[in-house]
């Protein structure tokens, strides 16, 4: 039986997760979706909304949050669903896990890699994060979970942009891109999103796709360790008016390493292993497409927290510049230690 794709839908309270989910469930796409919900409290209002007119099977855990101490609960639910599917008792093509607004997606994502039984049935496709444009500034300032949700995302959807002035939205996008330059950003209106932007994004595949936002790279190129003050035009934005709003004050931030020199494989493996051991809990997402000595193919690695995987990818194309690029997204990671260490792993 082929693996069941899984999507984690995350985002702060009121950011429109249920609206998006409802939209996806009701769109005529011929796919059967099993939804795993986990709202706090016994009474689940979302359930009343969701059951309205769709025939999807909704499995709900009303006893708390999906990813705290009750990770077993998610695991049990996933195992149960897969068993029922195998026996033909349930029919579904993919699952969507809607996390509570307060959830950190990290442990949910880890379940798919750390648990052999789950890994035999499911393939984690991507983490989608909804950001409420109207309240995001405050939420990102106040709540680390909100910042982590942005850092983990493979795709970010901005809701309620119609309620916010354009310059405020631009400033928010600027801030989000500094936290996570690898996730495409898209404004959504009442959950209207093409399914191709929701499913089969292959965010966790060891593939050679690593698109980093070009504005972020430009800033990175002429960075003097104060890059937020470098973009003059951004600093007139209202949300940039106070020092504590500057992107470099967010604890979730990202940096990129690029080099055209090949890596020494042994040195690189040892260095990355050490960094993951030391900083793993603070490393949210990281990915690299690498030029490695002795390989005529690209080498790809990616990880979530302490879980790192690597694989040999496609051949370098004729005429393609051979080089490495890596992006690290984490909480207060020591950028200089990473960049200098990686530099020392070059052959």
From TrEMBL:
Keywords recorded for this protein, A-Z: Chaperone, Hydrolase, Nucleotide-binding
Domain CobW C-terminal: 252-346
Basic and acidic residues bias spans: 222-239
Catalysed transformations (reactions): GTP + H2O = GDP + phosphate + H(+)
Region (Disordered): 222-247
Record-linked InterPro entries: CobW-likC_sf, CobW-like_C, CobW/HypB/UreG_nucleotide-bd, P-loop_NTPase, Zinc-reg_GTPase_activator
PANTHER family with a match to the protein in the record: COBW DOMAIN-CONTAINING PROTEIN, COBW-RELATED
Name used for this protein in its record: CobW C-terminal domain-containing protein
Organism: Methylibium petroleiphilum (strain ATCC BAA-1232 / LMG 22953 / PM1)
């Amino acid at each position: 039986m082929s693996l069941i794709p899984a999507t984690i839908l995350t985002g702060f309270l009121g950011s429109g997760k249920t609206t998006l989910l409802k939209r996806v469930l009701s769109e005529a796409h011929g796919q059967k979706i099993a939804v795993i919900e986990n709202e706090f409290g016994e009474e689940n209002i979302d359930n009343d909304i969701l059951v309205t007119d769709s025939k999807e099977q909704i499995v709900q855990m009303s006893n708390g949050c999906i990813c705290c101490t009750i990770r077993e609960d998610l695991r049990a639910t996933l195992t149960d669903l897969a068993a029922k599917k195998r026996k033909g008792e349930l029919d579904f093509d993919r699952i969507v896990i809607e996390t509570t607004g307060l959830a950190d997606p990290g442990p949910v994502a880890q379940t798919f890699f750390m648990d052999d039984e789950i890994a035999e049935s499911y393939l984690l496709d991507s983490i989608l994060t909804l950001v409420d444009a109207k309240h995001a500034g405050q939420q990102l300032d106040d709540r680390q979970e909100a910042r982590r949700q942005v850092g983990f995302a493979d795709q970010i959807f901005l809701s309620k942009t119609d309620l916010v002035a354009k310059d405020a939205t631009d400033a928010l996008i600027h801030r989000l891109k500094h936290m996570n330059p690898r996730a495409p950003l898209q404004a959504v209106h009442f959950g209207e999103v093409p399914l191709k932007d929701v499913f089969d994004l292959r965010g966790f595949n060891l593939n050679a796709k690593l698109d980093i936002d070009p504005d972020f790279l430009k800033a990175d190129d002429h960075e003097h360790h104060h890059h937020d003050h470098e973009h003059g035009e951004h600093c007139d934005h209202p949300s940039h008016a106070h020092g504590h709003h500057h992107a470099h004050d967010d604890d979730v931030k990202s940096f990129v390493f690029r080099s055209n020199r090949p890596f020494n494989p042994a040195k690189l493996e040892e260095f990355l292993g050490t960094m993951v051991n030391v900083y793993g809990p603070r490393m949210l997402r990281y990915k690299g497409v690498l030029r490695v000595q002795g390989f005529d193919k690209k080498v790809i690695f990616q990880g979530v927290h302490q879980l790192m995987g690597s694989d040999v990818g496609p051949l370098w194309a004729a005429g393609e510049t051979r080089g490495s690029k890596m992006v690290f997204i984490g909480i207060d990671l020591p950028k200089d230690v990473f960049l200098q260490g990686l530099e020392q792993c070059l052959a």
